[in-house]
Amino acid sequence: MNLARIIEGHPADRVAIFSRGKPTTYGQLCDQVAHVRGGLAALGVAKGDRVALLCGNGRYFAELYLAALGLGAVTVPLNPSSPAPEIERELRTVGAKVVVVEPAAAHAWSQINRTGLAAVEHVVATEPKTVEGADCLFDELLRAEQAPIAELETDDLAVLIFTSGTAGSPRAAMLSHGNLLSNLDQSRSTDGIMAGDVVYGVLPLFHIFGLNVVLGLSLARGATVVLVQRFDPFTALETIRDRAVTVVPGAPPLWVAFSQFDDAPADSFANVRLALTGAAKMPEEAARRLQERFGMSLLEGYGLTEASPVVTSSAGMEVKLGSVGKVLDGIQVRLVDENGDDALKGDSGEILVKGPNVFMGYLDAPEATARALTADGWLRTGDIAVADDDGYLYLVDRAKDLVIVSGVNVYPAEVEQVLLDHPDVAEVGVVGVPHPHTGEAVKAFVVLKPGAGAHEDSLVSWCLDNLARYKCPTKVVFVDELPRNVSGKLLRRSLV
After folding, report:
1. Residues with Cβ < 8 Å from 427, sequence gap 6 or more?
2. 73/40 Cα distance (integer angstroms)
3. Which of 28, 234, 249, 333 is the most exposed, having the fewest neighbouring CB atoms within 10 Å of its CB?
4. CA–CA gap between residue 208 and residue 309 (Å, rounded)
5. What is the DSSP string of 196-249?
6. Strand pairing partners for 98?
7. What is the pTM of this model?
């Protein structure tokens, strides 16, 4: 078995991917991926080696992802817009052997200290003369002799994907071929993406929703994926119309933007049969506006990186506003109270998930893994929900301190550590606050050292130099002290 085989068995002349306005059929994709497999093999890539992708949504990402999987190598999708220190930390954590860099990440790559990345043997540039230190071009991989797909076991590692997850600061979650394939199979229990669909692919492929739903599920079903680098409502509606898009998956901020786009024609989504959302709680008012303006019912689901990712879906069933749907076939879910016992009927409880889609743990982090997984294989999600009599799930709270910005997890401890590294900062507390466009935003409360002269802009700039933009505070408040309990623990709920 091998996850890379999801592109096989579809009509060779059907379009698999649109990228930069150019179509690639399934026949062409299979052929090109086999060449790229051979090119990676010629660089010495073998089973278990890490191939990091600093690439946006496009053909390069798709072909490299599938080629690395086919060799039994481990793909590490990274955010190409992250600053150099964050990328360097992640590459060091996974021990990448090959790094593929698109022009958008070239500047950050040029700032990375290669002496700390001894495992990196090759740097592949997707475009000529764009990446400092590149020793190979993507086109060279594409001209290599084809290589066969390796036969693997279910628990062979496929992807390392960074997540704030259920266990503290960002870790590399280990997802196997079996994990990812099982979630694709579990999704068959819904009337979701099907053969012949055209899927709008703006969700970032370095995020699990984009990776294994937008790309993975679409290719497994024989659909067409329109890969888009960035989102704005006007051009998105043009693409949806011109490409006859039938499925639009998006985090809540995408749908909020559409709901507030007053100039959008009422028939903007006339061809769309599935409007999907997840990754964060969808504002109910925005969902109502979409229904009223476009006659479109938004189907909300629930998932997380550690579950590969989909746990529940509303596709193919009666829509209940505010619900994330029902649990997929093949997945078990429990709601438990603070003692770990099953919550009483009608009561809220933490969501626990079990199934072949549940991840293998966090890379080189046994303590974090033990906090996330019970001894008998249940994944502690940290999310609180309640179920109705029909089996629909409703998210009501989070047990963890996670902040969700545009559907992407931000763990306060990571932001706090970066701020504490600033020479003027003595103490810091970070929380999430409501934001009209991104759902939540990061807000920092800072205690300065005596005599320090740091100001809000300088601390925000410090964060921008060390963290991805979405993780950076949009507001910094200076305080004399932080609220703590008698044992000294920060009381985040008291930060307002």
Report:
1. 420, 446, 447, 481, 482
2. 10
3. 234
4. 6
5. T-EEEE-S-TTSHHIIIIIIHHHHHHT-EEEE-SS--HHHHHHHHHHTT--EEE
6. 51, 122
7. 0.87
What is the overall mean pLDDT for the chain?
92
* Res 404: pLDDT: 82
Indicate the length of the chain as a whole number.
496
Question: For residue 168, which of 380, 339, 352, 374 has the smallest C-alpha distance?
Answer: 380
Give every CB contact of residue 107 below 8 A, 6+ residues apart in sequence: none
> In DSSP terms, which residues pair with 349 in a beta bridge?
385
At residue 487, the pLDDT reads 47
247: left (phi over 0), alpha (psi -120 to 50) or beta: beta
Q: How many CB atoms lie within 10 A of CB 265?
A: 11
Alpha-carbon distance of 83 to 137, in angstroms, equals 23
Element (H, E) at 175: strand 171-176
Q: Are 70 and 35 in contact (CB under 8 A)?
A: no
Pair of tokens at residue 157: 């590692």
Kindly report, residue by residue over 203-223, the tens digit of the pLDDT. 999 999 999 999 999 999 999
Dump the DSSP string for 350-394: EEEEESTTS--EETT-HHHHHHHB-TTS-EEEEEEEEE-TTS-EE
3-state secondary structure (DSSP) of residue 122 = strand
Q: Among candidates 277, 259, 252, which has minimal Cα distance to 404?
A: 252
249 touches 224 (CB < 8 A): no
Cα dist. 396→129, 250, 327, 383, 393 in Å?
Answer: 50, 21, 16, 8, 10
Residue 19: pLDDT band with limits 50, 70, 90: very high
Q: Going from the N-terminus, what domains does the chain have, and what CATH number goes with each?
A: 3-152 (3.40.50.980), 198-398 (3.40.50.12780), 403-494 (3.30.300.30)
